[in-house]
Specification:
- The protein has about 450 residues and is of the alpha/beta class.
- The protein has a single domain, classed as Alpha-Beta Complex (Spore Coat Polysaccharide Biosynthesis Protein SpsA, Chain A).
- The protein has 14 helices and 19 strands.
- The protein has helices at about 5-10, 25-40, 40-55, 75-90, 125-140, 155-165, 210-220, 220-225, 245-255, 295-300, 320-325, 380-385, 395-415, 430, and strands spanning about 70, 95-100, 145-150, 175-180, 185, 195, 200, 205, 230-235, 260-265, 275-280, 285, 310, 315-320, 335-340, 340-345, 350, 355-360, 375-380.
- The strands form 6 sheets. Strands 1, 2, 3, 4, 9, 10, 13, 14 and 19 form a 9-stranded mixed sheet that branches. It has a two-stranded antiparallel sheet with strand order 5-8. Strands 6-7 form a two-stranded antiparallel ribbon.
- Strand 16 (about 340-345) and strand 17 (about 350) form a beta hairpin.
- The chain is globular and about 75 Å long.
- The structure holds uridine 5'-triphosphate (UTP).
- The site of uridine 5'-triphosphate has 20 residues, from loops.
Length: about 450
């Protein structure tokens, strides 16, 4: 792209100031800035500016939202779903999709969250535990579960290095497909792109919902189709307990003829920080905990339990065909008002101590209203959800290790192993076999 073309593109979306310091850049700086500008879409930029003026996709009233009908597994139902899911796994029609492009700012770890040394004994990285579960499926069903891993510009190289240095954790590297999510420019309150330096626009990852566009752009969706994938198991990097490609969940999705299925767990606190699915008329929407009124959060059902009992830990199964259909559509933009280091109007670097600009994100659960059918399955939190979000305290490495060992202990005891109460240990699911709770 030439400087003139960049000027024209930026002018078409009111961002000419991006080239304000062009004259002070050397040839390397100019080349890098032109590369960044060439990746900008004027249409997307105008969408961001419009989202800013309307304050994004949030702030919709949650009054009157109905709770979903959530299937609670019985032994018989679980057996039926598992048999159906196992058929799909044996036929090689299941893929795993990991979103691992987040910045992990709360954890404050210097590297991709998936490389965090979570193993209670070995300090093995989070990725190892995911990979070994995926390998366990291949060993059990004889067909690979291809693993699609979304990274971001910031952690792509480190993520790939972690896989390489660990020999892909025993997986066939042809079954691991990396792709990188998009970046959106950050903007000030007037909708002007912020500059990180005189030659660089401040950007941030476009959210876990960016996975759709990234799957399509990178060719990963086409790769899924080529491999004959029908069901896509979606999970987040920070949950070491997740039961990847759970046959019961896949079978449930299939038999329910759902396009988008969600695992939900009962909240232990009405104000727990999880999204809550609600129906408005015939449309589903994920209501974020911050959007819920106190009244909705505390509302009781006839049985005395919370009416909006179930929350979503972002464990989903999608039809691959549904993802393909929706990858052609725009997703809503959500705004986050953040502290963004940038160049001030006087050309000096600013490290703000209060929010000064907006990041734009897409959320995966905004696909809910688009699905012809959503289905909801209850699961036991102790077996499948313990997120790594913070450096200490709740949802930290300490709670993750505790919950990993508690889950393994239950499985080992079920298998007849005698355990000392104070044992510190690890289980390799590729050797032990998949662990899915009772
Ligand atoms: P979180 O919203 O918890 O964000 O991501 P995070 O980046 O891990 O942590 P904080 O909020 O900065 O502390 C939930 C999941 O979505 C992925 C994350 O990698 C994680 O698996 N994610 C999030 C992306 O892949 N891309 C994004 O842009 C945002």
């Amino acid at each position: 792209m030439t400087c003139d073309a960049a000027r024209r593109l930026l002018a078409s979306c009111g961002q000419e100031h991006v080239l304000k310091y062009w004259g002070s850049l050397d040839s390397v700086g100019r080349k890098a800035l032109l590369k960044q500008v060439s990746a900008i879409s004027a249409g997307d930029t105008l969408r961001c500016m419009k989202a800013l003026s309307t304050k994004g996709a949030s702030a919709v009233s949650t009054a009157g939202g109905r709770a979903p009908k959530v299937a609670v597994p019985t032994k018989a139902l679980k057996a039926k779903w598992t048999a159906a899911g196992e058929r799909e796994l044996r036929a090689g029609r299941v893929a795993a999709l990991l979103v691992a492009g987040g910045q992990g700012s709360r954890l404050g770890y210097d590297g991709p969250k998936g490389a965090y040394p979570i193993g209670p004994v070995t300090g093995r990285p989070l990725f190892w535990y995911h990979a070994r579960k995926i390998l366990a499926k291949k060993l059990q069903y004889g067909k690979s579960v291809p693993w699609y891993v979304m990274t971001s510009e910031a952690n792509d190289a480190d993520t790939k290095r972690c896989f390489r240095e660990n020999g892909y954790f025993g997986l066939d590297r042809r079954d691991v497909v990396f792709f990188t999510q998009g970046m959106w420019p950050c903007m000030d309150e007037e909708g002007r792109m912020l500059l990180k330096s005189k030659g660089e626009i401040a950007t941030s990852p476009d959210g876990h919902g960016g996975v759709l566009a990234a799957l399509s752009r990178s060719g990963a969706l086409a790769d899924m189709k080529r491999r004959g994938i029908r069901h896509v198991f979606f999970f987040q990097v920070d949950n070491p307990l997740v039961n990847i490609a759970d046959p019961a969940f896949i079978g449930f999705h299939l038999l329910e003829k759902s396009e988008y299925s969600l695992k939900l767990c009962a909240k232990t606190d009405p104000f727990e920080k999880v999204g809550v699915p609600m129906a408005f008329g015939k449309t589903w929407r994920m209501v974020e905990y911050s959007e819920m009124t106190k009244e909705d959060a505390l509302r009781k059902a006839k049985d005395g339990r919370l009416y909006h009992l179930y929350g979503s830990p972002a464990i989903h199964v999608f039809d691959r065909a549904f993802l393909e259909r929706e990858a052609r559509e725009d997703m809503p933009l959500h705004l986050a008002f953040k502290k963004i280091p940038c160049i001030g109007k006087d050309g000096k670097s600013v490290k703000p101590d209060s929010p000064n600009g907006y990041k734009f994100e897409k959320f995966i659960f905004d696909l809910m209203p688009k699905a012809r059918k959503c289905a909801f399955l209850a699961f036991d939190k102790a077996d499948e959800f313990s997120p790594l979000k913070n450096a200490t305290g709740d949802d930290s490495q300490e709670t993750c290790r505790r919950d990993m060992m508690a889950k393994w202990r239950r499985a080992l005891v079920r298998a007849g192993v005698e355990m000392r109460d104070d044992a510190v240990f690890e289980v390799d699911e590729a050797l032990f076999g998949p662990i899915s709770g009772e």
